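Fold this sequence, please.
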Amino acid sequence: MAQGSSRLGKIAVAIFCGLLVGVVSAGVHIATIPLDRTIMLHVAVGDFIAALTAIIVCLGIQLRQEEIHYQNSIERAAIVAELNHHIRNAVFPLCLAIQKTGDADSMKTAQEAVDRINIALKDATVDALSGRTQYSTDRNAVKVAE
C-alpha cells in the first residue's frame, strides 16, 4: 500500500513538473510570438512535446535515485551480513570451549555475552539498513549520521 502511494506520488510530481514546463513555455510563447493561428498551433504542439519530455526526464531522474538507493541498501546489507558471519565464527569456538568445561557460571556468562552480541548485531543491522550509519570504502572509517 505504501509503495503504491509512493509510486503515485512520484508520477504526480513528474506530471506536475511536465505541466509546469508546458504552461511556462506556452506563456512565454504567447507573450513573445504574434497571435497567428498556424504558428500558435505549431508552438502549442512543441510546448506539449516539451511537457511530455519533462515528464519522462523527471521519471527517469526518480528511477535513477531509486536505483542508487537500492544499490546502497544492498551494499549495507552485505556489510552487515559479513560482519554478522565473522562475529559468529569468532564466538562459536569460545562457546564450545565453555560448554566443554561444564561450569554453570561460565556457561551463563557466555550465554549473556552471546545475547548482548545478538542485540548489538540487531541494532547494527537496523542502523545500517536505515541509513543512519554510513560505511565508507575505507575499512577504518565508519561515520554515524547525526
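Strands lie at 133-135, 142-144. Residues 2-144 form one domain.
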